[in-house]
Write a structure and sequence with these properties.
This protein is of the alpha+beta class. It has helices at about 55-60, 65-70, 75-85, and strands at about 10, 20, 25-30, 35-40, 45-50.
């Protein structure tokens, strides 16, 4: 049985609940205002976490949750990349 501590929990943009960060995708806004999908979850910068599901990505896009969380405008290509990750 895995021991989950609060250190590994992150708030999901879709469900607004705390989930183990290994089950989430991290999107980062760097100091250069670039938006990058951080698969290793080690980049520095402002980060936002969301579930690895089609419904979560579509809902966050519809309600502009990622843009509000990262405090910047999000390009459609980022959402396309996120959906592409689900296909792999």
């Amino acid at each position: 049985m895995t021991n989950i501590t609060t250190k590994n929990l992150r708030k999901d943009l879709f469900s607004k609940t705390l989930i183990d960060r290994q089950n989430l995708i991290r999107i980062v806004k760097t100091k250069d205002n670039q938006i990058i999908i951080d698969l290793d979850q080690k980049m520095s910068g402002r980060g936002a976490y969301m579930q690895k599901s089609y419904e979560a990505i579509i809902a966050v896009k519809k309600h502009n949750g990622l843009a509000r969380s990262l405090k910047t405008k999000i390009d459609e290509a980022i959402y396309d990349k996120l959906l592409g990750l689900l296909d792999e």
